[in-house]
Amino acid sequence: MEKLIKMKKLLLGLSLLTISSSCFAIVNFTSSTGTLVMRDVSVDGTTLYDSVTLKLNLANGTFTVVDATLADNSFSSTAIDTLTQDGIKIDFMGCKLSGKNQITCLTKIVSLTKDQNITANGNTLSKLFDNQSKQYNTSTITALDRSGSFELSFNAIQGIPIEVKFIFNNIDPAATSISSFQPWIDNGVSNLRPDFRDIEF
User: Fold this and answer.
1) CA-CA distances (angstroms) from residue 44 to 116, 145, 149?
2) Are 106 and 75 in contact (CB under 8 A)?
3) 77: helix, coil or strand?
4) Cα–chain-centroid distance for residue 49?
5) Is 15 helix (H, G, I), strand (E, B) or coil?
6) Of 83, 128, 135, 155, which is the most buried if we count CB atoms within 10 A?
7) How far is the C-alpha of 183 from the C-alpha of 192, rounded, in Å?
8) Does residue 18 share a domain with residue 116?
9) pLDDT grade, residue 57 (50/70/90)?
């Protein structure tokens, strides 16, 4: 039943996308039938597809889903880049599409020398720039089953990594990569402002 509901949402979303000028699609038609392939399809704001292929019947105005490939939205298991400063290590694990026009960037933060309070700053402090140089401010920060929009503080036990996610909304559909992701982390004494570059999503 759940699969049927999700497929109905997929069909509804695809029917809307076929009339959207912002949709990237490959079309191949004969006289009465056609094949439509769409990339990076978001159905319900959460479920993402890398590719969806439709078989169109132009004679009766119907279509069937031939193939739908779910997107891999898992993060790297190893750090892509790392900043270590003033006893804090920030491992950057990547950025992924996480919803309609939404990107989530994952960091793992470790206090190397002691237990301490660490704050991840959001809003206008942590930023993302797409490959067209358009700037986005953080919408939400999550860590340890908590979330905040402006800042999120947590107690970091020495040596234990804490996953901190930075969520950005209203990403331009024309963006194909991230030029720069700049999270802002502080411990009340030092400000850590890494600049992670050239990121695929």
Assistant:
1) 39, 23, 23
2) yes
3) coil
4) 13
5) helix
6) 128
7) 8
8) no
9) confident
Q: What is the CA radius of gyration of the chain?
A: 20
Select from 110, 119, 117, 107 the least CA-distant residue to 164. Answer: 107
Of 94, 89, 96, 98, the residue nearest 77 (C-alpha)? 94
3-state SS, residue 128? strand
Tokens 């963006």: give the residue: 175
Q: Of 84, 124, 90, 85, whose CA–CA distance to 106 is shortest?
A: 90
| Inter-CA distances, 81 with 122, 172, 173, 194, Å | 20, 25, 26, 10
Pairing of strands 140-143, 162-168: antiparallel
pLDDT digits (tens, 9 = 90+) for 101-160: 899 999 999 999 999 999 999 999 999 999 999 999 999 999 999 999 999 999 999 999
> What is the edge-to-edge ordering of all strands in the sheet holding 178-182?
135-138, 123-130, 178-182, 196-199
Its pTM surpasses 0.85: no
Identify whether residues 182 and 127 lie together within a single domain: yes
Name the β-bridge partners of 63. 56
Instruction: Tell me the HSE value of 175 on the side-chain side, using a 13 A CA sphere.
Output: 27
Residues 6+ apart with CB under 8 A from 142: 152, 164, 165, 167
Parent domain of 130 = 81-199
Task: Please tell me whether residues 14 and 52 are part of one structural domain.
Answer: yes
Which of 41, 70, 99 is the endpoint of a domain?
70
> What's at 60, amino acid-wise?
N
